[in-house]
Write a structure and sequence with these properties.
Radius of gyration: 20 Å
Number of strands: 13
Strand content: 15-25%
Largest sheet: 10 strands, mixed
Shape: globular
Number of helices: 10
Length: 293
C-alpha cells in the first residue's frame, strides 16, 4: 500500500496538472478536523494537488451528516480513502443542496460526493463511474393506515427540494409510478432537509415522505421504529461523483484511486464498517454497491 501511494504521488508530481474548481473561498467554515474556511484544493503556485474539497449535504445520512462536532458518512469515508491513496488532505465542505451547482462552478468545492444521482443529470457534470444502485421510496408512520401507493390519494407528502425524489415525482424525468403518486396527492411540499420532513411526519403535518432508501433506513433506525417504507419504489437510480463538466483529469484521478481501493479490499472494509453500525441499518450498502461488480 505504501509503495503504491508513493508511486501515485511521484506520478502526480511529474504531471502538468491543470485543475478546475480550485479557487474561491468557501461558503461556510467547517468545524471538522481536515476542513477549512478556504476551499482551495491546490497550494498557490503549485501544479501538484494537495487537497480535495468535497461538497456534501450535512443532513443526508448515512452518506454525509453532522455527528456531534464532526462530519461523518459512508461517502466521506470513501473520499478519505481516496485522499489517503494520494496523500491529499480531505476538506469536508457542507453545502446547501440547492446551491451545489454554484458551489462547484465557483470553485468552492472540487466535486459533489454525497449520494449524488447520475440519472437525469448525465450531461450536466463530468461523472465518475456509478458506485451505488439506489431507489426512491415512500416513508409513512406505522399506524397511518397507508399500506400502498394507492393509499396516498389526497394525502400530504414532503420531499427535499432539488432532490432525486422530487425529480421522480414531477417534471420530464418523473417515472410512471411517480406521476401517478404526485397526481393523486392532496399536496406535495418541498422542504430543505429530511430532518424537517420527519418532524412534519411525526407531528402529523404531513402523511408521507418521498426520499432515498438509504436515508430512509437511517432515519427509521434512529427514530424508535415508528415508521415503515412502502414496498413499491418510486424509481431506481445510480449514485456517482459529480465534477465540473470537462474536468476529466480530476475525475480520472479519483476513479483510478476508487478502482484500486475496490481491488485491494479497502472499500469492502468501509462497507463492512457501516453495515455493522446501528444494528445493521445500513446492511443495504453491501447489496447496492455496484462498482467493480
Amino acid at each position: 500500500m505504501k509503495l503504491r501511494r508513493i508511486a501515485a504521488m511521484l506520478l502526480a508530481g511529474v504531471m502538468a496538472v491543470s485543475l478546475v474548481g480550485c479557487g474561491g473561498s468557501s461558503s461556510g467554515k467547517s468545524d471538522d478536523n481536515g476542513s477549512a474556511a478556504n476551499g482551495s484544493a491546490v497550494d498557490s503556485g503549485s501544479a501538484e494537488r494537495s487537497k480535495l474539497t468535497v461538497g456534501f449535504d450535512a443532513e443526508f445520512p448515512p452518506y454525509g451528516f453532522k455527528d456531534g462536532d464532526t462530519y461523518s458518512g459512508f461517502d466521506l469515508d470513501l473520499a478519505q480513502a481516496v485522499c489517503d491513496y494520494y496523500g491529499w488532505e480531505l476538506v469536508k465542505q457542507p453545502i446547501d443542496w440547492d446551491s451545489k451547482d454554484m458551489e462547484l462552478s465557483s470553485g468552492t468545492i472540487d466535486c459533489i460526493w454525497n449520494g449524488f444521482t447520475i440519472n437525469g443529470r448525465e450531461d450536466d457534470y463530468t461523472w465518475s463511474e456509478p458506485y451505488i444502485d439506489n431507489s426512491q421510496v415512500v416513508v409513512v408512520k406505522k399506524d397511518s393506515g397507508i399500506a400502498s401507493m394507492d393509499d396516498l390519494s389526497g394525502k400530504i407528502m414532503d420531499v427535499q427540494a432539488d432532490s432525486s425524489a422530487l425529480a421522480a415525482l414531477e417534471g420530464e424525468d418523473a417515472t410512471d409510478v411517480g406521476k401517478k403518486v404526485s397526481g393523486s396527492l392532496g399536496q406535495l411540499i418541498q422542504v430543505s432537509n429530511y430532518n424537517t420532513a420527519f418532524m412534519d411526519l411525526e407531528s402529523g403535518a404531513v402523511d408521507a415522505i418521498a426520499m432515498d432508501v438509504g436515508v430512509a433506513n437511517y432515519e427509521i433506525a434512529n427514530r424508535d421504529d415508528g415508521y415503515v417504507i412502502l414496498d413499491e419504489e418510486i424509481s431506481s437510480e445510480q449514485y456517482g461523483i459529480g465534477f465540473n463538466k470537462g474536468n476529466t483529469e480530476l475525475r480520472d484521478q479519483v476513479q483510478e484511486a476508487l478502482d484500486a481501493l475496490v481491488a485491494d479490499g479497502t472499500v469492502e472494509e468501509i462497507i463492512t464498517k457501516w453495515s455493522e453500525m446501528d444494528d445493521g441499518a445500513y446492511s443495504f450498502l453491501a447489496d447496492t454497491w455496484c462498482l467493480g461488480k
